[in-house]
Amino acid sequence: MDRFSIIVGDITQSDAEVIVNSAHNTLLGGTGVDGAIHRAAGPALLAECRSLGGCATGAVKLTSGYNLRAHYVLHTVGPVWQGGRLGEPALLASCYRSCLELAAQKGFRSVDFPSISTGAYGYPIPQAATVALKAIMDFLAAHDQPERVRLVCHSEKIADIYRQTWNIWYAPDKAHKMPTSTDDNRK
Ligand code: AR6
Description:
Distance between the termini: 23 Å
Order of helices and strands: EEHHEEHEHEH
Bound molecules: ligand AR6
Number of strands: 6
Structural class: alpha/beta
Largest sheet: 6 strands, mixed
Oligomer: single chain
Shape: globular
Number of helices: 5
Strand content: 15-25%
């Protein structure tokens, strides 16, 4: 799948046209990737967020990117992990799908996602990776836009879990496996 990749980095430095923020229902900022995006974008982002009336879990709201390299930010709200039987997988899938639907509708060419819900909201990364990758891969299989989607992980350890999950579900042929940080070909 040439349109999708898993990378390690700081999403606030992304060169994508639009980045996704893993926000709180209030859209008034917070810790983790949300705090980092607000710091990098500057106070005008919070001012625009204040006018949006919050965001439901699994939904998305669009703002400008202000001081970010990205032109826009898609703010989505992931579920808080409560054991997995309270609709968390469907809500997490909805975050990814809603962002991609809006990005396609707006004609955005490149979208970078963080690992939604897997920090403060406690979603176990292996389970989150399965849900996230299915939502992204299903969407890309059915739509021509966006042209490029990346999962930007904050550490190699997190990226390896996403890559290993991708390999289990989407790379039955070894030739198409996504390299992990422990693969020799990355040295
Ligand atoms: N670039 C990429 N990924 C990052 C960055 C970064 N700069 N910073 C952190 N991460 P979290 P959540 C990763 O806690 O679990 C906030 O207070 C981090 O390593 O940011 O969805 C909001 O306001 C982790 O893998 O978000 C909400 O209330 C991932 O981003 C709540 O936290 C998500 O961790 C959302 O919690």
